[in-house]
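queue> holo job accepted (zinc ion)
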Amino acid sequence: MWEERFGESVYVPLADRAFADVLKKVDLTPDQVDHLIVTGLHARAVGSFTRRAGVRADAVVDNLAKTVGNTGTAHFGLLLADTLDRAEAGQTIVVVVLADGATAVALRTTEALPARRAALSVAAQVTGGRDTLRYADFLNWRGRLTTEPPRRPDPDAYAAPPAGRNTDWKYGFTGSRCEDCGTRHLPPARVCRSCGAVDHMTPERLADTYGTVATFTIDRLAFTPSPPLVAVVVDIDGGGRFKCELTDVDPDDVAIGDRVEMTFRKVNTARGIHNYFWKARPVRAAGSTKGQEA
Ligand SMILES: [Zn+2]
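queue> job finished
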């Protein structure tokens, strides 16, 4: 960040150059850009460059500062996803990121865009956010308020080698399906537990697949950043059963048959290592009702 004015004097010329370079490569002028996304932690430089970029006023993408804040590294992806929710086929999107220098990327949407949009838009997720979180919980999750932890052993710190070996499972919730008999395995397996076939598996990404609560329990002693722990067994649509924590839910409202979706969340922090994995949460998409296929 440095001092505000100094940062601006360094960042803005870099952004100017990156923006001019990328437009030259794709043979466009600033007024032909349909959506301009500018993001970075240096708000003053971001604002300054946005104003001087020379694009049409309606092409400047709202940076969501007033509703979401600044999510840091994730912010350019968030703004791009939000833009793709609204963009039409054949439009030009330019992303300028100010972070340890300036990066500009030019993208062109295709006819495939409308069919590939996410079921739940970024705007719908923003307006659908819960505002019931207690400030004390927020401070606790941020490590600024210390509360008495559960009287249980501390959770184990996660290690890099298993994360490295199971990257697709850990980060993509990718299971496997037997090519011989069709049985789905969660976590992914090399040997089919139904027919015994070895290494006849097709990876299956299940992060966007819904499931149904088969059974659950509410544990008031187990470790979770958000007690009490609601532990659920989820039957994933199309096969596969998975045990995990149910989050973003009032424990009194949980019922067998509830429809849930998977969400990538912080599980714990142990010895300074943050561990993220998949939890379930109630389905948010419009039109999905309890106990029905959505
Ligand atoms: Zn099989």
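queue> The radius of gyration is 23 Å.
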